[in-house]
From TrEMBL, chain A:
<dbReference type="Pfam" id="PF12838">
    <property type="entry name" value="Fer4_7"/>
</dbReference>
<keyword id="KW-0479">Metal-binding</keyword>
<comment type="similarity">
    <text>Belongs to the succinate dehydrogenase/fumarate reductase iron-sulfur protein family.</text>
</comment>
<dbReference type="InterPro" id="IPR017900">
    <property type="entry name" value="4Fe4S_Fe_S_CS"/>
</dbReference>
<dbReference type="GO" id="GO:0009060">
    <property type="term" value="P:aerobic respiration"/>
</dbReference>
<dbReference type="InterPro" id="IPR050573">
    <property type="entry name" value="SDH/FRD_Iron-Sulfur"/>
</dbReference>
<dbReference type="InterPro" id="IPR017896">
    <property type="entry name" value="4Fe4S_Fe-S-bd"/>
</dbReference>
<dbReference type="GO" id="GO:0051537">
    <property type="term" value="F:2 iron, 2 sulfur cluster binding"/>
</dbReference>
<dbReference type="InterPro" id="IPR009051">
    <property type="entry name" value="Helical_ferredxn"/>
</dbReference>
Automatic annotation (TrEMBL), chain B:
<keyword id="KW-1003">Cell membrane</keyword>
<dbReference type="InterPro" id="IPR027477">
    <property type="entry name" value="Succ_DH/fumarate_Rdtase_cat_sf"/>
</dbReference>
<dbReference type="InterPro" id="IPR003953">
    <property type="entry name" value="FAD-dep_OxRdtase_2_FAD-bd"/>
</dbReference>
<dbReference type="InterPro" id="IPR030664">
    <property type="entry name" value="SdhA/FrdA/AprA"/>
</dbReference>
<protein>
    <recommendedName>
        <fullName>succinate dehydrogenase</fullName>
        <ecNumber>1.3.5.1</ecNumber>
    </recommendedName>
</protein>
<dbReference type="GO" id="GO:0005886">
    <property type="term" value="C:plasma membrane"/>
</dbReference>
<dbReference type="Pfam" id="PF02910">
    <property type="entry name" value="Succ_DH_flav_C"/>
</dbReference>
<keyword id="KW-0560">Oxidoreductase</keyword>
<keyword id="KW-0249">Electron transport</keyword>
Length: 255, 637
């Protein structure tokens, strides 16, 4: 597609640190190349605001190549924007039309507090992993890597879950603000591998407990998480999480 | 300044084992009495923090991002090397060592590189044990592929997301220790100073990026694992938050900075477009396993690639380097791409691109096989370039990707400041003048999982460190100085934005200290950078408040350091009057335009010592001693 330049009207959520209320402010995004990414569009707007003496819009970002999971805003009602399987840093302005009005808001959930403007605190995800989202292994004593064969198909399936970037779009998109897609991706990744089996029951119980105590809701099969996931992680993982959790609760001593 | 590498004597193969045996140990009951600060949560910092906590030390771990899982190691695509010899193609520890030392153009420290190769197999075993889903064959065993600079398939990979999977493995280990209380995690912090008491590093002062508060933290030792400084070039493949500030603060507190000019240019990056561009995206080197690189034979041929017949294409790498072909090391591939474009044979709108063509591989193996190997990379390319690489060749061009220079460390990974250690991408020791593919991940994990946890014990067991906490005057002095500096930044109220000045600096760095350098250009850079620094302190505009979440202030502080560091980088480049690795000094080349080393005068690591504000830094040289390999002109023909 050829490079063009477009003008947009932005309706952006501004919320100062420590203040209770935020509000939508209107800004103009002028002469934006359609080859620019969404975050680069915000950079251009921020340069303009700075020159005018207005504090730029705060937003999280880092790698800008779709892998660190740090960026993420709700754009026109969609987490990371409407395009499927895309992080915000990989959303390009060629997906917008000249003259469009674009609404930009932070991810909203009880467990994600707004830090400032579009920046939210997603440390609740860390708490879930800290509760048990790992395999216990000491550095130095591992057996040879080929000791445990894993079939190609199983490895691919584990990798499908392992690809989760922890951006939180699934939570923002879910009417229940549930973290089940995130938790289930990790559960699937580790439970499918032989080295993750010994702790599987303990892990499922601990992670679900942590998820509840962080204030995330439960899954009611809305499938919004799957629709918004930039890595196309599937809700079949949630079915696996439910199985792991149920069998851990019923059959295991790991309470 | 004394540069004692502390490399143990004796045969190369046994150095590390003997050294580990000789190291003084801290007994398990005493480990809990020691506090260690680790800055960074990437492969090096995260693995060091997790392993030390597992051993019993109390660790305070810091990162810039909101969570340790976002460290820039996550962006590495292609893979990690080990000498497992699973494919049965004759690999060995010595082979891996040899390729790495040769690939670095004999400018790395031999003993460190050998230890790296020795640790590689244990890294793979440990990562698999922690759940890293490396690619498998149908029979269930691991699959391997090859990378530039090697003729064996020794690279382990997880689709095009190897860095992500390794980092998530580390993050899991780290999270476990946070949960158990062995690691105290401090996220969204910028480390702005290293605190020295009685000659030893005893803590850090940082800015809490959420509240804006200046915080002090004390410990018995400090470990920097802050990654690379390549954002000094503005446009790079590094994460936007990667920076030099903590290492620069260490430099000012007595830690020598080695080989700052060693900057790696990666040959397969998505091309540059537009002046608003913030970031470059790499296409993994593994693509060169199946992609063929070519340009038209004729200059100015602007037909679309499908209109250019086979006999009018120049597969220049295959032509010039028949034994390595498209898998020549990064510096060779980059330089040849630049040469093709300089000859007017570049493609695309700007003429600054070459084709990376998969049509033959797709014809041979089918689209599904290529998708399984590189699907996410093709998708990424499609999103950015809006072109389907399954149908048309990718357009790529070299870009700044990684730095091999960094804080000088000895064999213990300790800097020239006692009690201050430096790991992974932030130190200088293992890559020489050029880094081979799939070796950065290896170094991060080797340093963090398998070196530092031993050597730091050797340090702590032999020191008698006084009790120091954050009420010590050294912390107070540092806090005061930092507050003054931040206030100064907030009160300039100039006309230029931080990014605007950073882009100008980046332009000078690329122009005068990029893929090719010469004396005149470097001297120009040495005039322009200080002038720009002067302008920054007169005319930058930092909005908002320092007592708040303020991303402009964060960027301004980092740029202030880059404006000093960029000058050191150019000075180092000017001093090194030879070509080696990716550092191509135009005055020093062979008749075939290959890099020409000067072992007589430059077989050393250049370690720069801070001499005080406004004074020229002092150049110290660590001679590089090679006991096992013979220095030869690198040839990949």
């Amino acid at each position: 597609m050829e490079e063009k330049f477009i003008n947009l009207t932005l309706k952006v959520w501004r919320q100062k640190q420590g203040e209770k209320k935020g509000k939508i402010e209107t800004y103009q995004a002028k002469h934006i190349s359609t080859d620019a990414s969404f975050l680069e569009m915000l950079d251009i707007v921020n340069e303009d605001l700075t020159i005018k003496g207005i504090e730029p819009i705060a937003f999280d970002h880092d790698c800008r190549e779709g892998i660190c999971g740090m960026c993420g805003q709700v754009v026109n009602g969609y987490a990371h924007g409407e395009e499927k399987g895309t992080t915000l840093c990989q959303l390009h302005m060629r997906r917008f039309k000249d003259g469009d009005t674009v609404f930009i808001e932070p991810f909203r959930a009880k467990a994600f507090k707004v830090v400032k403007d579009l920046v939210v605190d997603r440390s609740a995800f860390d708490k879930i992993i800290q509760a048990g989202g790992y395999i216990t292994a000491k550095a130095g004593g591992a057996p040879d890597a080929n000791t445990f064969p894993v079939t190609y198909e199983t490895c691919e399936l584990a990798m499908n879950g392992a690809e989760c970037i922890g951006c939180g779009a699934c939570v923002a998109a879910c009417p229940n603000a549930s973290a089940m897609l995130f938790v289930s991706a990790k559960i699937s990744h580790l439970a499918l591998l032989p080295q993750g089996r010994p702790e599987a029951a303990k892990r499922a119980l601990a992670m679900v407990r942590a998820m509840d105590s962080c204030g995330f809701g439960n899954c009611s099969n809305e499938r919004e998480c799957e629709a918004s996931c930039p890595k196309n992680i599937e809700i079949t993982n949630i079915a696996r999480l439910n199985r792991e959790f149920l069998s851990a609760g019923v059959c295991s001593t790991a309470m | 300044m004394q540069l004692n590498s502390n490399v143990p004597s004796g045969p190369l193969e046994g150095k590390w084992d003997r050294y580990k045996f000789d190291l003084k140990k801290v007994n398990p009951a005493n480990k809990r009495k020691f506090e260690v600060i680790v800055v960074g949560t990437g492969l090096a910092g995260g693995s060091a923090a997790a392993t030390m906590a597992d051993l019993g030390y109390h660790v305070k771990n810091f990162c810039i991002q909101d969570t340790p899982r976002r460290a820039h190691s996550i962006a590495a695509q292609g893979g990690i090397n080990a000498a497992k010899n699973y494919p049965g193609d004759g690999d060995s520890v010595y082979n891996l060592f040899y390729d790495t030392i040769k690939g670095g153009d004999y400018r790395a420290r031999e003993a460190n590189v050998y230890r790296l190769a020795q640790n590689a197999n244990a890294i793979i075993d440990h990562c698999v044990a922690t759940g890293v889903p490396f690619a498998r064959e149908y029979g269930g065993l691991h699959a391997n592929r090859s990378f530039g600079g090697a003729q064996v398939s020794r690279t382990f990979y997880a689709r095009g997301q190897t860095g992500q999977q390794l980092l998530l493995g580390v993050y899991g280990q780290l999270s476990r220790q946070i949960g158990l209380g062995g690691v105290e995690m401090y996220s969204r912090r910028d480390i702005l100073d290293i605190v020295v008491v009685d000659g030893c590093a005893r803590g850090v002062v940082c800015r809490n990026l959420v509240t804006g508060e200046i915080e002090s933290h004390s410990a018995h030792a400090v470990v920097l694992a802050t990654g690379g400084y390549d954002n000094v070039y503005f446009l790079t493949t590094s994460g936007m938050h990667s920076n030099v500030s903590a290492c620069w603060a260490a430099y000012k507190k007595g830690a020598a900075f080695a080989n700052p000019c060693y900057t790696q240019i990666h040959p397969t990056c998505i091309t540059v477009h537009g002046d608003y561009q913030s970031k470059l995206t790499l296409m993994s080197e593994s693509l060169r396993n199946d992609g063929r690189i070519w340009v038209p034979k004729k200059a100015g041929d602007n037909r679309s690639p499908d209109q250019i017949p086979e006999n009018e294409r120049d597969y220049y790498l295959e032509r010039k380097y028949p034994s390595f072909g498209n898998l020549v090391p990064r510096d060779v591939a980059s330089r040849n791409a630049k040469m093709a474009c300089d000859e007017g044979r570049g493609v695309g709108n700007t003429g600054l691109a070459v084709y990376l063509d998969f049509s033959e591989a797709i014809k041979r193996d089918g689209e599904d096989v290529i998708r399984a190997k590189y699907g996410n990379l093709f998708q990424m390319y499609d999103k950015i370039q809006d072109e389907n690489p399954y149908k048309v060749p990718m357009k790529i061009y070299p870009a700044i990707h990684y730095v091999m220079g960094g804080t000088w460390v000895d064999y213990n990974l300790m800097t020239t400041r006692d009690g201050l250690f430096c790991l992974g991408g932030a130190n200088f020791s293992d890559h020489g003048a050029n880094r081979l593919g799939a070796s950065a991940l290896m170094q991060g994990l080797s340093d963090g999982y398998f070196v530092l946890p031993y050597t730091i014990g050797g340090y702590l067991a032999t020191q008698s460190l006084a009790d120091v906490d954050t009420s010590h005057q050294a912390f107070k002095d540092s806090e005061k100085q930092l507050n003054e500096k931040l206030n100064k930044l907030m009160n300039i109220n100039g006309k230029r934005t931080v990014d605007d000045i950073h882009k100008e600096l980046g332009h000078y760095m690329w122009e005068y200290c990029g893929m090719a350098r010469n004396e005149a250009g470097l001297k120009t850079a040495l005039q322009k950078i200080p002038a720009l620094r002067e302008e920054f302190w007169q005319n930058v505009n930092v909005t908002g408040s320092s007592k708040d979440f303020n991303q402009t202030l964060e960027k301004a502080y980092r740029l202030a350091d880059y404006l000093e560091f960029g000058e050191l980088l150019a000075r180092d480049a000017l001093t090194r009057e030879e070509s080696c690795g990716g550092h191509f000094r135009e005055e020093s080349q062979t008749e075939e335009n290959e890099a020409k080393r000067d072992d007589e005068n430059f077989c050393h690591a250049a370690a720069w010592e801070y001499a005080g504000e406004g004074k020229d830094p002092i150049l110290n040289k660590e001679p590089l001693v090679f006991e096992s390999v013979k220095l030869t002109q690198r040839s990949y023909k």
